[in-house]
Design brief:
alpha+beta, Aminopeptidase, Elongation Factor Tu (Ef-tu), domain 3, 10-stranded mixed sheet, 6-stranded antiparallel sheet, 7 helices, 29% strand
């Protein structure tokens, strides 16, 4: 196993603990900036909060690697007559998996309150449809762990429409090498990019191209990397999908050939496949019809470059996600080999 896999797993666990639904990035970006100080790479921040690290290379060609640190989440939509919360979604969680999940409500004044996502038919002893009722934002509530029995009780806490609601990530690393958590999409790939920077600094590696590592903050709502610096190539490092009619497993690095935005660059994908074969990596090529990436957003934003997409295989995306340290290592090794390709 690569020597920096333990660092990646530890960093991922700490990163996953920092709430960062799309639109609320200040805590996680502060965390990212503090962690990056050890690498001493040039850093800049865009107006909407993305962070960009620059690693000088041997040529004036520029390769961007992106990972997004924003996650799924929710916001308070309204307060019901009994003091419970109605909510609106941020991104696309699989809502049946959210029934019974713990959460935190953040007010504009910085107060935090514990809560639980529940079906509005929350008890089998009271509601005949408790088991059969569909779970979605229209049929679910957030129960607040405070003594509230009315809308005015909740308002008195300082909770208002527009307040963010954070899901508990429930991160666990098993002895068998799995990491399971909400929001591995895409915090596990951000951790891999930090493992990449750590490896390059420790080994004094100078890449063939200048590298721009972009940590984006609005990917889950479609415009994370819509603005990027001028680059020649860009590879989104995001999760690989696992499921029916797909080749990728939780132990592999995924190379995506096409997603909902269309095919990725033929030569970049071919180079990634060749490097995977030469380095005897466990990899898969797949097509993801319901997927979009930071590369997709950047191309829609009018940027001119060639793009690709790779990432560790992640099971149960947008639900209770899981990947394996083997997939993390395969992704890291593929990135290291690509950076050194002339």
């Amino acid at each position: 196993m690569h020597s920096n896999i333990p660092y990646i797993l530890d960093f991922a666990k700490r990163l996953l603990a920092v709430p960062s639904p799309s639109g609320y990035s200040k805590e996680v970006i502060a965390f990212i900036e503090k962690e990056s100080l050890a690498f001493q790479y040039e850093v800049e921040k865009t107006k909407k909060g993305n962070v960009i690290f620059t690693i000088p290379g041997k040529s004036d060609k520029v390769l961007a690697l992106s990972g997004h640190v924003d996650t799924l989440g929710a916001m308070v939509k309204s307060i019901a007559h009994d003091g419970s919360l109605r909510f609106t979604t941020v991104g696309g969680p699989i809502w049946p998996t959210m029934d019974g999940e713990y959460c935190t409500i953040l007010t504009r004044e910085g107060k935090r309150f514990d809560g639980t996502f529940l079906s509005s038919s929350f008890s089998s002893h009271v509601y005949k449809d408790a088991s059969s009722k569909e779970r979605n934002p229209e049929t679910m509530i957030v129960r607040i762990d405070e003594v509230v029995h009315s809308k005015n009780d909740t308002l008195a806490l300082g909770i208002r429409p527009g307040d963010f609601i954070f899901f508990d990530p429930k991160t666990t690393i098993t002895a068998s090498g799995y990491i399971k958590s909400r929001f591995l999409d895409d915090k596990i790939s951000v951790a891999i990019l930090f493992g990449l920077m750590k490896t390059m600094r420790e080994q004094h590696l100078v890449p063939e191209k200048t590298i721009k590592i972009i940590i984006s903050t609005y990917e889950e709502v479609g415009h994370g990397a819509s603005y990027i610096p001028e680059v020649d190539e860009m590879i989104a490092v995001d999760m690989g999908c696992v499921g029916d009619d797909l080749t990728c497993t939780e132990e592999m690095v995924s190379i995506c050939c096409k997603d909902s935005s269309g095919p990725y660059d033929y030569q970049i994908i071919s180079n990634l496949v060749k490097l995977s074969q030469e380095n005897k990596l466990s990899y898969a090529t797949d097509i993801y019809p319901y997927y979009g990436s930071d590369v997709s957003a950047a191309l829609r934003g009018g940027n001119d470059f060639r793009g690709g997409l790779i990432g560790p295989g992640v099971h149960a995306s947008h639900g209770m996600e899981r990947t394996h340290s083997f997939a993390i290592e395969n992704t890291l090794l593929l990135l290291l080999s690509y950076l050194q390709k002339k």
